[in-house]
Amino acid sequence: MKKKATKKPAEKKSGEAYIEGSGKVVETDIVTTLEENYMPYAMSVIVSRALPEIDGFKPSHRKLLYTMYKMGLLTGARTKSANIVGQTMRLNPHGDAAIYETMVRLARGNEALLHPYVDSKGNFGKAYSRDMAYAASRYTEAKLESISGELFAEIDKDAVDMVPNYDNTMLEPSLFPVRFPAVLVNSNFGLAVSMASNICSFNLAEVCETTIALMKNPEHNALSTLKGPDFPGGGYILYDEKEMDRIYRTGVGAVKVRSVYSFDKDARCIEVTQIPPTTTVEAIIDKVVELVKDGKIKEISDVRDETDLSGLRLAFDLKKGYDADAVMQKLFRLTPLQDNFNCNFNVLIAGTPKVMGVYEIISEWTAFRRQCVKRRVYFDLQKKKEKLHLLLGLKKILLDIDYAIKLIRETEEETEVVPNLMIGFGIDEQQAEYVAEIKLRHINREYILKRTQETDDLAKEIKEMEDILADDRKIGDIIISELEEIISKYSQPRRTMFLYDVQETAEPEEEAADSTPVNIFFTREGYFKKITPKSLRMSGEQKLKENDEILYSAEVSGASELLFFTNKFQCYKSRCADFAETKASVMGDFIPAKLGMEDGELPVFMAVTEKYRETLVIFFRNGKCAKIPLSSYETKTKRKKLANAYSDLSETVAMFVVDGEADFVLKSDAGRVLLFNTALVLAKSTRDTQGVQVMRLTKGAQLLSVYPADTADIKDPEQFRIKSVPSGGTASDIDIDQLKLI
Q1: What is the mean pLDDT of residues 168-189?
Q2: Could you give the residue numbers annotated as active site?
Q3: Adjacent-strand bridge partners of 281
Q4: CA 548, 550, 551, 557 torsion-angle sign
Q5: Are 586 and 529 in contact (CB under 8 A)?
Q6: What gap in Å lies between CA 689 and CA 652, rounded to an integer?
Q7: Fewest 10 Å CB contacts: which of 501, 526, 648, 689?
């Protein structure tokens, strides 16, 4: 089948024909392709999948909960989860696995939410466990929790818009008319295209109280009523008032959450019972085991996951002689037992993503809730007006009921009853239909008096509703009274507590290395020795591996740092202090084994520095020279390995470390020589820079060797000096051996 082109390219290239419906494949601009294909997908993910809206739900949540509501699971008994998943596919056709996974997170058994919306029975896994899998949907059962009733209380009163489902066979709510700020009460995470959302949970009572306070006084300080996040798993928040205020005002910031632990002195066992919401028990155990293996934690003899039906429990057996609190401080610093919850309150407002603080979210929710209440009141008002209209017609009939009965009895055809009533009593068709349907048993004094009284009550209620719709203050009073009711029905104590003025222990600094002078030696085969001057004076000949030779030897400070550049273009960093002092009679440390290099990886050059103020100069076989400040290899963290340490585009001829500028003599295998000063090459901080062409080589020629000018045995070297690069050099038959990497 031929496919028609959806859009003709904006600009026709010469020589190309664009034939409609021909099936011809034509080149299109990448920007056009992104605009036509990727942008609609990105917007769909942002607006219809990943980000929560002001009611606190994503579309997948809303479709599932609404299906459960329509199934009667708000008041009925639990049903198999598989039934719910199957019914939900009428609204959400993305597959049963995705739907069930959504239900699991909303369920009480999973413990992911502060106030779960689904009452579950069976194994729903645990939010704090990575490996504890939930049971299949055919084994578990579910219904709606009572708090879910606050989502649907006005769903049938036109409080929100109803939209068609994906195949136009039924309607679903675009939002829930939720009666409390659920967007802040239960946590929500969403990853869209180019943006994300990460909303932490807050205590229900505190959120409602803060909303009430802000409705009464927009200048209210939310920190006084909304203390901070309240996570389902508990833990301690390391309270930072400035950071909390920043989150409340901008929606962006980080909350430090610390695990809760106790220490059993008799068993010498640390028991962790609450962990941060951003980690799992398996991640904590894996990290502790890794640190023990690396020797960074020596105080722990065993770690166990003792989680059972009673709840989470991690056990750390402590060796004798160690303080539990000190060990936990170390674990807080090195493991996810203390972690940051990074807040990013990104919420969809009228289809547009917006990062908002707590103040703005509550303001937006209040505006949304006002509209819901107005629509609900208006819906009830219309219903009452319709009923009043019917009763007013009945009232006219009741004024002369005998005439009405006679009129109906004397009417020959049934179809004429309603028109005759309309003419006889001056009422409209709806009123006449209502009167005509009244049973004979209702034509009595009691019925007439009740209907008359009901008419008066309806008129009074209608007046009150009209007053409400005309007065925003009364709308606000309704919202406040509903929030107060929700506090009394669903509030619960805080699970997450606060730690104030906590002085976090910083990572211990490395001991300052002894700056006493030492002699170091580096060999071509990759061996390293550190010998004290006294020991060196008393030593004899240096012991080396057969056919090995010393490339570098010098007296340096014991506080120097060492950079080993390898044949795989990587740099391994170490300290002179990390090597033990030895003697000339031993071969020394084998660097690949000492620094954990890869198989077949060998050091080819060693740089020694203290302040990283020197410059690394590299000469390549293609005649180029690269100048890289050693500061490019300095790292704030304690990284031991740097990839892409120098360029791999051409074979390396020589590497040097210079302080300032220096002269070098270069010779090609074509017999040309030049004297070059490094000032002619600009230094670049990019470690793998390919350098600047210094010696211009003829076809097939290569740079053969490089010597520092002060070590090159050349008469009148100035005759070879160049003043600009690149240069072909001067023909010469001087004999310079190929440079060793020193």
Answers
A1: 95
A2: 139
A3: none
A4: positive
A5: yes
A6: 13
A7: 501
Q: Calculate ∠ Cα 510-511-512, nearest 5°.
A: 110
CB-side neighbour CA atoms (13 Å) of 663: 13
Asked if 544 and 553 count as a contact pair (C-beta separation under 8 A), the reply is no
Distance CA 307, CA 299 (A): 23
> Are 657 and 685 within 8 A, CB to CB?
no
Helices (H), 71-216: 81-88, 96-106, 149-152, 182-185, 204-216
Amino acid at 170: M
Burial class of residue 220, CB neighbours in 10 A (0-12, 13-18, 19+)? middle
Closest by CA position to 83, among listed 134, 135, 138, 123: 138
Architecture of domain 260-336: 2-Layer Sandwich (3.30)
Q: Where are the domains of the chain?
A: 51-178, 260-336, 368-490, 517-731
CA atoms of 557 and 560, how far apart (whole Å): 5
Q: Any idea what DSSP says for residue 66? A: H
CB 697 within 8 A of CB 670: yes
Identify any residues that bridge with 627 across adjacent strands, giving them in sequence order: 617
Residues 405, 382: Cα–Cα separation, whole Å: 31
User: Which pTM value belongs to this model?
Assistant: 0.68
Give me the CATH code for the 51-178 domain, please: 3.90.199.10
Residue 132 has pLDDT above 70, yes or no: yes
Contact 348, 197 (CB under 8 A): no
- Give Cβ neighbours of residue 416 (< 8 Å, ≥ 6 apart): none
Q: What is the pLDDT of residues 208-251, one digit of tens each?
A: 999 999 999 999 999 999 999 999 999 999 999 999 999 999 99
Distances (CA, A) of 97 to 50, 72, 82, 143: 17, 23, 10, 18
- Tell me whether residue 229 is exposed, middle or buried, using C-beta atoms within 10 angstroms of its C-beta: 0 to 12, 13 to 18, 19 or more: buried
Contact 694, 682 (CB under 8 A): no
Eight-class DSSP state of 688? T
Interatomic CA distance for residues 547 and 523, integer angstroms: 11
Under CATH, domain 368-490 is a member of which superfamily? Topoisomerase, domain 3 (1.10.268.10)
CATH for 517-731, options being 3.90.76.10, 2.120.10.90, 1.10.3210.10, 2.60.120.10: 2.120.10.90
Tell how strand 188-191 and strand 171-173 pair up: unpaired
The DSSP secondary-structure symbol of 660 reads S
Mean pLDDT of 153-162: 93
Helix or strand run (H / E) with residue 332: helix 324-334
CA distance linking residue 309 with residue 542, whole number of Å? 67
- Provide the pLDDT for residue 10: 45
Structure token pair of residue 601: 């990886």
343 Cβ contact partners less than 8 Å away, ≥ 6 residues apart: 198, 199, 200, 247, 251, 252, 253, 254, 255
